[in-house]
Design a protein that fits this description.
Elements: H1 4-16, E1 24-29, H2 40-47, E2 52-58, E3 61-66, E4 70-75, E5 80-83, E6 90-96, E7 101-106, E8 112-116, H3 120-123, H4 137-146, H5 151-156, H6 166-176, H7 189-208, E9 253-257, E10 260-264
Antiparallel strand pairs: 1-6, 2-3, 3-4, 4-8, 5-7, 6-7, 9-10
Helix pairs in contact: 1-7, 4-7, 6-7
The protein binds a DNA duplex through residues 1-3, 6, 33, 60, 75-79, 89, 106-112, 150, 153, 156, 158, 165-168, 211-212, 214-221, 238, 258-261.
DNA sequence: GAAGACCTGCTA
DNA sequence: TAGCAGGTCTTC
């Protein structure tokens, strides 16, 4: 579920909550696989009594920088999220100094909490964050020309650019009017520019809306305060198969690209 | 590239 | 009840 805008929203709200500069007093883990290869007791010993020095984000990773050069990297995968309140699908709870509690829920149990002294070992595998200066036009343009891949799976490849997932890939391609199966080095410079700016636009709008919430269920995305983000009907492409394109009013189509459900307007995004 | 694995909840 | 899901990883 969470892509760059959702993760950014969560990090901002955790900061606002005053998580930074607090000490971790205790941790409870209900799904031990998520902290592998550590056991609960060794994991707990590693992080307890350390201070959260700094919170940040890189792509879809949440980075807890702790005292004594320790790091906790959290990836929410499909259904992870943080909350101020406990709920049915909680997989962990952290008690911080000052009585602040954080609950981590993850119905599908795909999320990962990685304790490490060396965050680069994970973060170096990522390409530049989609909203960072390092994701420059020059970088984008050069790789687009060099690679011979379908554009959608390329956008989803975190080693190319970090933070884009299935929703925002579909949104950006729709906005730029590019077919998701188009091969990168066949896309002309004008379209590349449209796509480059569309990526920024859809991510920024996502953040302004505090993320995107598609469904109604409990596995649906909620921010730290339990609130939904941008509603489904504000999304232009993702999940709109069978509905009318908001630009040309032709029927949107659901297709599969690299095994991922993908929605396009076959007229606007002709191949 | 494709397909399966990891999991559970929701929808058709 | 079958099929699908915002992500990634492994193995063809």
């Amino acid at each position: 579920m969470p892509e760059l805008p959702e993760v950014e929203t969560i990090v901002r709200q955790l900061k606002k909550r005053g998580v930074e500069n607090r000490q971790i007093l205790a941790v409870r883990i209900d799904w031990p696989k998520m902290i592998a290869p550590y056991s609960y007791s060794s994991f707990s010993k590693k992080i307890c009594n350390e201070k959260i020095v700094k919170l940040s984000r890189n792509g879809k990773w949440i980075i807890f920088e702790l005292s004594n050069n320790k790091f906790l990297l959290i990836h929410l995968r499909m259904s992870g999220s943080f909350s101020k309140k406990p709920s049915k699908y909680d997989r962990a709870e952290i008690l911080l100094s000052g009585g602040v509690k954080l609950y981590y829920k993850d119905s599908r149990k795909f999320g990962k909490w990685i304790f490490t002294y060396n965050p680069s070992s994970i973060l170096n595998k990522l390409g530049p964050d989609a909203l960072s200066k390092d994701f420059s036009w020059k970088y984008f343009h050069e790789l687009m020309n060099k690679k011979n891949r379908m554009i959608k799976p390329f956008l989803l490849d975190q080693s190319f650019v970090a933070g884009i997932g299935n929703i925002y890939a579909d949104e950006a391609l729709w906005l730029a009017k590019i077919h998701p199966k188009k091969i990168t080095n066949t896309i002309n410079e004008y379209d590349q520019k449209k796509l480059y700016s569309s990526i920024h636009e859809v991510l920024r709008i996502g953040i302004i809306n505090r993320g995107t919430s598609l469904g109604k269920g409990k596995s649906n995305y909620k921010d730290l305060n339990g609130k939904s983000g941008r509603p489904k009907d504000m999304v232009k492409a993702y999940g709109r198969g069978g509905k009318n394109c908001e630009r040309c009013s032709n029927k949107m189509e659901k297709i599969y690209v690299a095994q991922r459900g993908t929605t396009i307007c076959p007229i606007c995004q002709s191949f």
